[in-house]
Amino acid sequence: MDPRVPASPEPRSPASRARFDADVTGIASLAEPTRRALYLYVQAQASAVSRDEAAAGVGVPRHVAKFHLDKLVGDGLLEAEYRRRSGRQGPGAGRPAKLYRRAARELAVTLPDRRYALAGQLMARAITESGSDGRAVAEALGGAARDRGRWLGDEARRRAGARASDAALLTAVRGVLDDEGYETRPGPAGLTLANCPFRALAQEYAAVVCGMNLAIMEGLLDRLGQLGLTARSGAAQGCCVWLAAEGSTA
């Protein structure tokens, strides 16, 4: 390993940190009881609702409903639109009403990071491809996982920039893997992965998930041969896979 690579965990990328912060803020917004009640009321309705309807629905004054509904919009949990419900247009039709509906955005925060949606996408792709070309599902899953790894490798190169040093590229690799939830830790033997993004699945389907993780890392290293790393499986803690430095016997 290059000694210039910092030994402490790399922070999330700015974009990943911003998404994490926004999700935490959105979920924390529901800790306020009135706000939570308004959110649950709005999301239970078949169509967008007005402030008056929301206020009546949860039994609070209109000005209280307005404050909390607009806070929910700001936190990304609700969306607002302006519409004349009468359907009339032109002079005399009145001002459009501000209506609220549940936001299309999905919020999820897991600590440590988990990526079950990604696992589902890779497995769904594998099942689909297996049905169309006759390959075994496990083989198709390995191919889908390697493609994901290659994408991560390309993303690391993009972040590192043209003509990046090995140290800069390795830092970028750690960044993309940390964003993916692997929590990289550097050491003399290479990079260990302190967290498995698919932990709950791995506890019941270890062979499938560990094979998927290994394939992701193999795909990643397909794009990063200059770093002299090899994907190995069998780690006792964290993720079942680690990236061994060239010449390491660990």
Task: Lay out the secondary structure.
Blueprint: H1 14-29, H2 33-44, E1 49-50, H3 51-58, H4 62-74, E2 78-83, E3 97-102, H5 116-133, H6 137-160, H7 166-179, E4 184-187, E5 190-193, H8 199-204, H9 206-222, E6 229-233, E7 241-245
Antiparallel strand pairs: 1-3, 2-3, 4-5, 5-7, 6-7
Helix pairs in contact: 2-3, 2-4, 3-4, 5-6, 6-7, 6-9
Please describe what this structure looks like:
The protein has 250 residues and is an alpha+beta fold. It has two domains: 32-102, Winged helix-like DNA-binding domain superfamily/Winged helix DNA-binding domain (Arc Repressor Mutant, subunit A); 113-245. The protein is built from nine helices and seven strands, in the order ααβααββαααββααββ. A hairpin with a 7-residue loop joins strand 6 and strand 7. Helix 2 (33-44) packs across helix 3, helix 3 (51-58) crosses helix 4 (62-74) and helix 6 (137-160) packs across helix 7. The longest helix has 24 residues, at 137-160. The two termini are 13 Å apart. Mean pLDDT is 87; it is low at 1-11.
- Helix fraction by DSSP (H/I, runs of at least 4): 40-55%
Domain unit count: 2
pLDDT < 50 runs, ≥5 residues: 1-11
Strand order, largest beta sheet: 4-5-7-6
Number of strands: 7
- Separation, N- and C-terminal Cα atoms: 13 Å
Mean pLDDT: 87
Write down the overall geometry: elongated
Order of helices and strands: HHEHHEEHHHEEHHEE
- What is the makeup of the main sheet? 4 strands, antiparallel
From the alpha carbons, calculate the radius of gyration and give it in angstroms: 24 Å
Q: What structural class do helix, strand and pairing data support? A: alpha+beta
Number of helices: 9
Strand content: 5-15%
